[in-house]
Amino acid sequence: MQLRKLANNYDDIMHKINEMESRNNEQFSEIYEVLQRLFSKPEEQARKEIGYKADRT
Q1: pLDDT of residue 57
Q2: Cα(35)–Cα(1) distance, rounded to whole angstroms?
Q3: Triad 8, 13, 15: Cα angle to 5°
C-alpha cells in the first residue's frame, strides 16, 4: 500500500514540476533569447588601417 502511495505521489510531483517548467519556459523564453544574443560572438568586420602611409618607391 505504501509503495503505491509513493508511486502516486511521485507521479503527482513530476506532473507539477513539468507544469512549472513549461510555465517558466514560456515566461522566460524572451529573456533567454536576449541573453543568447548578448553572449554570442559578434561578427568581426574588416578594420580600416590607421596611421600614416609612407611612399616606398
Answers
A1: 62
A2: 48
A3: 95
Closest to 11 measured CA to CA, from 19, 23, 26 = 19
Tens-level pLDDT at each residue, the chain (57 residues): 677 776 778 888 888 888 888 887 777 888 878 878 888 776 777 888 888 777 766
Q: Note the helical H segments in 1-57.
A: 2-39
- C-alpha dihedral, 27 to 29 to 35 to 38, nearest 10°: -130
Q: How far apart are CA 55 and CA 57, in angstroms?
A: 6
Q: Name residues whose C-beta falls within 8 Å of residue 52's C-beta, 6 or more positions apart in sequence.
A: none
Q: pTM higher than 0.70 for the full model? A: no
